[in-house]
Amino acid sequence: MLRQPTLRPGDIPVALHLVTHAGQGYEELAAAFGTSTSSAHRAVGRLEAAGLVLPSERGANREALAEFLAHGVRFAFPPVRGPETRGMPTAWSAPALAGALPRGPAVVWPTERGTARGEALTPLSGKVPEAAREDAWLYEVLALVDAIRIGQARDRKLAAERLRQRLREAPR
User: Along the 172 residues of the chain, how does pLDDT read in single tens digits?
Assistant: First the structure.
């Protein structure tokens, strides 16, 4: 019997990384996320099966990715929140949306190297804070994805608009 390919939360950061790193080898992709080459290969395979990565160029299908992130990511990968902790700002607390959305407490990805305190939000992958620290564009779009995952309707709309813009304008 054939197996149904199923996206995993850690596939989303990989897809976003491939927006600006199309055609990148599996070794480099694995290094960017601190994972194995075989894990990177499987993630790309799942993303290709979902139509979020173009097999011909191993680059993100920007329109399909924007659509999935705007309307599906919060249902496929519901947020997991925790108590206040030290971490890296995300969602409306990150620079991508700072000041655009009046909100209460800060939201952070828990990490010892964090610079802020706030409500913990489990990242889509445990390697997200380190990968985001190394790639400012990736950090920005992952924070927008988190705003879509945890925000109210107005927050989601603004974050989705900014995310679409970043995907369109990203260097190839």
Answer: 888 889 999 999 999 999 999 999 999 999 999 999 999 999 999 999 999 999 989 999 999 999 999 999 999 999 999 999 999 999 999 998 887 876 678 999 999 999 899 999 999 999 999 999 999 999 999 999 999 999 999 999 999 999 999 999 998 7
Rounded to 10 degrees, the C-alpha dihedral 36/125/139/168 comes to: 80
In the structure, how many helices (H) and strands (E) does the chain have? Answer: 8, 5
Distances (CA, A) of 36 to 65, 87, 132: 24, 25, 18
What value does the CA radius of gyration of the chain take, rounded to a whole number of Å? 15
Q: How many CB atoms lie within 10 A of CB 61?
A: 21
- Amino acid identity at 58: R
Burial class (CB in 10 A: 0-12, 13-18, 19+), 21: buried
Q: The pTM is what?
A: 0.94
CB-based burial, 118-147: b 16+ in 10 Å, e otherwise: bbbbebbbbebbbbbeebebbbbbbbbbbb
Distance of CA 158 to the CA centre of its chain: 16
